[in-house]
Amino acid sequence: MAKRGSHGLETFPNPNPQRDYVIRHVAPEFTSRCPMTGQPDFGSVMIEYVPDRLCVELKSLKLYLQAFRDEGIFYEAVTNRILDELVAVLRPRWMKVETRWNPRGGMHSVVTAEHRQAARGRTRQVSVERENRLRAGGPSR
Amino acid sequence: MAKRGSHGLETFPNPNPQRDYVIRHVAPEFTSRCPMTGQPDFGSVMIEYVPDRLCVELKSLKLYLQAFRDEGIFYEAVTNRILDELVAVLRPRWMKVETRWNPRGGMHSVVTAEHRQAARGRTRQVSVERENRLRAGGPSR
Amino acid sequence: MAKRGSHGLETFPNPNPQRDYVIRHVAPEFTSRCPMTGQPDFGSVMIEYVPDRLCVELKSLKLYLQAFRDEGIFYEAVTNRILDELVAVLRPRWMKVETRWNPRGGMHSVVTAEHRQAARGRTRQVSVERENRLRAGGPSR
Amino acid sequence: MAKRGSHGLETFPNPNPQRDYVIRHVAPEFTSRCPMTGQPDFGSVMIEYVPDRLCVELKSLKLYLQAFRDEGIFYEAVTNRILDELVAVLRPRWMKVETRWNPRGGMHSVVTAEHRQAARGRTRQVSVERENRLRAGGPSR
Amino acid sequence: MAKRGSHGLETFPNPNPQRDYVIRHVAPEFTSRCPMTGQPDFGSVMIEYVPDRLCVELKSLKLYLQAFRDEGIFYEAVTNRILDELVAVLRPRWMKVETRWNPRGGMHSVVTAEHRQAARGRTRQVSVERENRLRAGGPSR
Amino acid sequence: MAKRGSHGLETFPNPNPQRDYVIRHVAPEFTSRCPMTGQPDFGSVMIEYVPDRLCVELKSLKLYLQAFRDEGIFYEAVTNRILDELVAVLRPRWMKVETRWNPRGGMHSVVTAEHRQAARGRTRQVSVERENRLRAGGPSR
Amino acid sequence: MAKRGSHGLETFPNPNPQRDYVIRHVAPEFTSRCPMTGQPDFGSVMIEYVPDRLCVELKSLKLYLQAFRDEGIFYEAVTNRILDELVAVLRPRWMKVETRWNPRGGMHSVVTAEHRQAARGRTRQVSVERENRLRAGGPSR
Amino acid sequence: MAKRGSHGLETFPNPNPQRDYVIRHVAPEFTSRCPMTGQPDFGSVMIEYVPDRLCVELKSLKLYLQAFRDEGIFYEAVTNRILDELVAVLRPRWMKVETRWNPRGGMHSVVTAEHRQAARGRTRQVSVERENRLRAGGPSR
Amino acid sequence: MAKRGSHGLETFPNPNPQRDYVIRHVAPEFTSRCPMTGQPDFGSVMIEYVPDRLCVELKSLKLYLQAFRDEGIFYEAVTNRILDELVAVLRPRWMKVETRWNPRGGMHSVVTAEHRQAARGRTRQVSVERENRLRAGGPSR
Amino acid sequence: MAKRGSHGLETFPNPNPQRDYVIRHVAPEFTSRCPMTGQPDFGSVMIEYVPDRLCVELKSLKLYLQAFRDEGIFYEAVTNRILDELVAVLRPRWMKVETRWNPRGGMHSVVTAEHRQAARGRTRQVSVERENRLRAGGPSR
Q1: Which of helix, strand or coil describes residue D107?
Q2: Nearest one of J28, J75, A108, J98 to I61, comparing CA atoms
Q3: Shortest CA distance from D128: residue in chain C
Q4: Cα angle for residues J70, J74, J79 (degrees, 5° grid)
Q5: Which of D121-135, G21-35, H110-124, J110-124 shows the highest mean pLDDT?
Q6: B38 Rama sector, left if φ>0, alpha if ψ -120 to 50, beta otherwise
Q7: A136 in B contact zone (CB under 8 Å)
């Protein structure tokens, strides 16, 4: 049933496209490399989305995230790239990606980005909500 | 007092239909099977609703959820199906179902779906709130 | 200073009626009986309110809640009844009652009901907020 | 630099009056006496405010709160009185006082009051927010 | 790639300026000195922002925060100064700085300040949100 | 299979009497009454034992503990009485009963008693261990 | 490399038999059925051992534990049976099995059993330690 | 039944003197004053003992501890004095007093002292155990 | 000062060899690969030792552990190998290595091994303690 | 009353020298510098001792620990040095110092050292206990 998209990501048809509902996958074992020092970075990746016609298949998502293991990439860039690549394959109604990183130099970091489908007459709410979103994403240490 | 609906779900009359109030049942012992591998999946099911004329009887709800024990079904599908079947029996003013799944392949997942009664002149708020809902349902890891 | 109302609930005058402020009492030792089986149920009761002219006296509230010890009553009914009886005595500007119940049959439950004073020109906000309230009361397991 | 106000509370000029920002002080060692029984009560006091021209000096705040050690006063009254006295000295743009009390008779209590500066053309938002505030201040047990 | 700004803070170009997203860095090892007594203060600093054209480089941020180690400065002042200096270098679309301080004299404190880019036609939302912000920044003890 | 002993406690044959192993049952919903004031007390009861020829049946144990609901009895007495009555029925190789009580008057209490089978040539170890036991049972608040 | 033993349990040679070391596997997703009511029980199984010549292969252990899914068996019996069957296959120097069960009727239970290799001149310590073990296995609620 | 001893401490006869068992009372609301500065200190007091012929009555213990409210006394001295005075009244087989103090100057402290009945031929174990005790009382931060 | 040993591990002279003291390093970011499937495994490594003449330098230890990133190795083998290689370089008086692994197939695992210096007349205690060790290493889930 | 010893540490006479009891001070705000890089290190220092004739005065202990703020020193060395210097001043019957360090390079560390008074005929127990100590000081992550 699953179909292969780019980056090896496989999809299957959303079983309930008539309803907006939220799927969240959390991968607490993400690792990539610092592009400056080559040292490994460790963190977790949270992917949350409202599917449109497609859902992502879990095993292919795991393999997709594992492929960053030897890649040198900044926190900000990897977060936006995962969002862009998943959006390109799934075309979700809404998607958020949040990466949380283990301490380096005594500091720990979180990067959060989200995407919203332009169509479906929701443009007005989108801008309001994006603002709310940015605010509401505050720290819950 | 209880009446039997479909899927063995029994109901009793809402003792306070004049007031909107919220009932939440959490079943942390849910288990079904992966439709791909046949392996057991484990998770918890949260059902939250504003009753209209009927409330669900707890023991019949427990048995209803136990009936998934040997069923092969995806996370996304089981969440929407529980919502659909409970809505069909209870006709609640509002209902949300959230399933939280133990890690598989290093990733854990959450699926959240909700239903709102169409009538009662609340259509405008509904769309606004559904949007808010989807956003506010963010991860509280 | 305290005056006796119905159900043995005593009250004292709100020392700061000119200001809307919130009082919350949590009784984690509530017990009643299941009306079906006669078995004891255990839970906690949270009462939160904005007083108008009267506040509830704590010791009488404790005794009032203890009086459910031998009563057979459903979760939904006891929650609404505590709300109704306290509202009748205190006439608060706003009140919420939330009961949280220990697991039975592997499931634990929460029931939440609230009341709002009709007067004081707040009718419009009330309906909006009640909606928000119902939504925002989601699970924080 | 500090100036003495009433109740021994000292103040210093807000170093950044051009910006609305929030200061929170939490005193988890508050003790007073029950006015009925004379028994000591224990709790914590949280004071949160947006300063206007003055900030409260911490040591004088500590001494101010210690002065309740031998005073017999109800939960509701002490919360409102701390708010009133601090508002009289600091004239803040906004202030909230929340007291949380150790269990007595098996129940624990929280009282929350807030004040908002009338001026500065914020009257409309104030009423909306006060409503939101009262609602959003729900229990996070 | 990084460029040096004032206070030794280095920056690099935002890799995704077309999208509003949030970066948060938390430094739990902050220490400065009390300007009254010279005694060391200990706390954590949280910096959260929506980048415009520039992101802050992490190592230079660490060194910038370490430079307060021997400085005598009040909680309120250090919070606003970190915000001002980072805003001057990064010109972010939005930024919040929150400092949380270890107990002194039995009290612990939190100071929260934020900045918002004036331009980009967002002025109306800004004022509403700033209000929401101040309210929503309540204690989560 | 189960046989009824005194106090309604039912037993079943230990399926593995050839091996010393430990069974622990924790009942967090225990309630009795203070013999001085008649006020309800709430706590939890932990029963841990090494069975000899008999194990206690869970449902009868639940009913046995529920029978204290209307009894006026001190913490120290109820702990020793539960131990004595279970020992009389089960004749275990070793048994410990620990009761933990909710705060009254700002203090919470724990009472721990244990029994050891006299026979089986273990007398020497017993005295040494009882000493160790008393020591090792220290608070793990 | 792995060899199949009874009950489908596969083993591989202990890579470091010259050293006593401890392996612990925790399976928090165990489910069986109550032999009285047929209702599902849920719990976790902890297996800890000092290998002699063989280690258990993880996937076969998972499948072995899944096989209890439809079996009706008491807490005490299932704990001892898992211990007996693993000992028969692995012949470990020491092994402990502990099962922890979700609440039923308001009570939760733990059963702990262990086995020790008779040979290797350790008989004296064994009896002392078994005693210590029984004692030290106290509740850490 | 209770008899008044010195310092207002009342006692009642140990209902089970034939058995060594442990009673623990924890008072988390202790306050005294620093003998140097007169500032209030806050902490908790844990009293644990094996009764001989007498048990301490809870309400009189609460009042005894409250009497330190206005006393200036060091951590080390108050801990030993509570132990001495309770031993003088109760003559327990064994007793331990542990005080835990809120941070002052960034440091928090714990003081632990214990007493053992000289008689009853337990002198040898006592010295060994006291040693073990001192060691085992390590920090569990 | 540091000298390079095998596997790139560097050492420096123990500054206090006259005293037995304990050093513990915990690396929560360990990753290797499953030798069966090639899939990445994630866990933490705890190294605890009493140094004799040498201590391990932290940065070289970090690099040593990172070198397992692309190695296919079983839990049991990697634990013993880290112990063996560190013992060969440091010749400690005592060392323990414990690896804790993220769940795979619903199970999580812990492997613990330790080494003790043969010389210094401690042979008798060693055997007793090794036994204690194995027992005391029980689960603290 | 206090007398000044070396390193500015002040002492006062042990009020209860006839009894072995334990005093613990925890300073969670310790900071020094890495002797290799000059970067600040952050950690906590725990000091636990059985006083003989002298106790350490808390304020002088705070100042003593603050004096490491600008010192470059290894984890192992600072732990042993604090122990040596406190022993030289206090001559305690027993003392333990434990330092816990924030993560550096993804690893966090703990160093534990203890001292025991040679005299008082306790030499035999000492060696046994030191062994036990080293073992029992295992990780409680």
Answers
A1: strand
A2: J75
A3: C125
A4: 95
A5: G21-35
A6: left
A7: yes
Q: Which residues of F touch G130 (CB under 8 A)?
A: 20
Please pick, among E41, E52, E55, E84, the residue that the annotation labels catalytic.
E41
Which 43-62 residues of chain D touch chain E by CB within 8 A? Answer: 44, 46, 48, 50-51, 55, 58-59, 61-62
H or E element: which one contains I114?
strand I107-116
- Helix (H, G, I), strand (E, B), or coil: what is residue A25? strand
Instruction: Give the pLDDT confidence of H66-109 residue by residue, as tens digits.
Output: 999 999 999 999 999 999 999 999 999 999 999 999 999 899 99
C-alpha dist (Å) from residue E60 to E5, E24, E57, E115, I47:
10, 15, 6, 21, 32
Using CA atoms, how far apart are residues F121 and B42, in angstroms rounded to an integer? 47
Query: What pLDDT score was predicted for residue E123?
Result: 37
Residues from chain F that touch H2, judged by Cβ atoms under 8 A, are none
Cβ(H52)–Cβ(H11) under 8 Å?
A: no
The predicted structure's pLDDT at residue I7: 83
Separation of alpha carbons E100 and J74, rounded Å: 28
Interhelix angle H123-136/J123-136, rounded to 10 degrees, is 40
Chains in contact with G, where contact requires at least 3 CB pairs less than 8 Å apart? B, C, F, I
Q: How far apart are CA B58 and CA E19, in angstroms?
A: 47
Contacts of E106 in chain H (CB under 8 A): 42, 102-104
Whether C and E touch, i.e. at least 3 CB pairs below 8 A, reads as no
G110 touches chain I (CB under 8 A): no
Query: Which two structure tokens, joined as six digits, stand for G7?
Result: 């009950």
Structure tokens at E88: 């001057």
Of D136, D21, B36, B123, the closest CA to residue E96 belongs to: D21
Do residues H96 and H48 lie in contact, with contact meaning Cβ atoms separated by under 8 Å? Answer: yes
**ipTM for this prediction:** 0.84
The end-to-end CA distance of chain I, in Å, is: 41
pTM value is 0.88
Which of C73-87, H2-16, H111-125 has the weakest average pLDDT? Answer: H111-125
Q: Is H40 on the interface with D (CB under 8 A)?
A: yes
Cβ-Cβ contacts under 8 Å, I140 against chain G: 140
Q: Where in chain A are the domains?
A: 3-135
Instruction: Dihedral sign for Cα I82, I107, G100, G89, please.
Output: negative
J28 touches chain E (CB under 8 A): yes
Nearest to F102 among D102, D104, D106 (CB): D106
DSSP per position, A77-135:
HHHHHHHHHHHHHH--SEEEEEEEEEEETTEEEEEEEEEE-S-TT-HHHHHHHHHHHHH
> Would you list the DSSP string of E98-111?
EEEEEEETTEEEEE
Alpha-carbon distance A92 to C49, whole Å? Answer: 42
Q: Which residues of A touch E59 (CB under 8 A)?
A: 105
| β-strand pairing of D94-104 with D40-50 | antiparallel
For chain E, which chains pass the contact test of at least 3 CB pairs under 8 Å? A, D, H, J
Residue type, H37: T
Are there at least 3 beta-carbon pairs closer than 8 Å between D and F?
yes
User: How many whole angstroms separate alpha carbon F125 and alpha carbon F116?
Assistant: 11
Given CB atoms, is A139 within the 8 Å cutoff of chain J?
A: no
CB contact (8 A) between residue G106 and residue F132: no
Instruction: Give the whole-angstrom CA distance, residue H139 versus residue J48.
Output: 8
What is the predicted pLDDT for the residue at H5? 74
Partner D, chain H 76-105, Cβ-Cβ below 8 Å: 102
Question: Which of F14, F29, F132 lies at the smallest CB-CB distance from G135?
Answer: F132
Which CATH fold topology does D3-135 show?
GTP Cyclohydrolase I, domain 2 (3.30.1130)
